[in-house]
């Protein structure tokens, strides 16, 4: 099942804006094995967590504790578009392609 680009971008945009609270139970994800398809189908809360992780991971120590929402949302859109076109690629590989660490 292919997820339409418009739906993917809407979902990513909504997740990026909402950044809802974490689930009450502990969860561990191995993002190196999570595929883009799994990511896109994981639900808004999980998408928000992964997008937030990517934002921090790829900034590293270079920035202060600042989230530029314009950049964050633009990167989320790029990531969603990439994942929609490459559903079998790992989330980490997709992040490397988009954010270029």
From TrEMBL:
The UniProt record lists the keyword Signal: yes
Keywords of this entry: Chaperone, Periplasm, Signal
Range of residues in the leader sequence: 1-26
Name the record gives this protein: Acid stress chaperone HdeB
Alphabetical list of InterPro entries matching this protein: HdeA/HdeB_sf (IPR038303), HNS-dep_expression_A/B (IPR010486)
Gene3D superfamilies xrefs: HNS-dependent expression A (1.10.890.10)
Organism: Bradyrhizobium guangzhouense
């Amino acid at each position: 099942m292919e997820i339409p680009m418009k739906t993917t971008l809407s979902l990513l945009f909504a997740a990026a804006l909402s950044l809802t609270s974490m689930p009450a139970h502990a969860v561990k994800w191995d993002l190196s094995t999570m595929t883009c398809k799994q990511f896109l189908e994981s639900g808004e809360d999980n998408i928000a967590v992964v997008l937030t992780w990517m934002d921090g991971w790829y900034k590293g120590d270079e920035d202060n504790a600042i989230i530029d929402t314009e950049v964050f949302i633009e990167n989320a859109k790029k990531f969603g578009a990439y994942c929609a076109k490459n559903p079998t690629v790992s989330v980490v590989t997709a992040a490397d392609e988009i954010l270029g660490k």
